[in-house]
Amino acid sequence: MKILNIVLLIFLLNHSNAQGFVSSTDRIEPLNEEYDNISITKLSTNTDATTFAIWIKKKVKIHKHINHTEHVYIKEGKGKFQLADSLYNVKTGDLIIVPKNTWHGVVVESKNPMKVISIQSPEFFGKDRVFKKPQ
Description:
CATH superfamily: Jelly Rolls
CATH topology: Jelly Rolls
């Protein structure tokens, strides 16, 4: 929790024109409980960054963002996270920093969905996501 607070504080201090947002991430729930694999709720956005709450039941396919850096904080769950050519066991409380143009994805191993807070910088419109073709 300390890591997330530090990352968010640094981000807010460096982006004084960011819109304000205060909430307990424990109270954020998917908009639709009947989602098949992934549910995404946009929490905040401006030209500097976009913040999402994301729930994953199964996996996020390997992909990269051409122009975005992504910070992923795991609020709940565990799984295997691929970052570039490495595979990591991740769990609640872990922070993953994904540089732009880096392949990444996750396979959930917990009984309940994985819940993450994702901060994409700069502002994210979903246009630079490229999925890796199966080999």
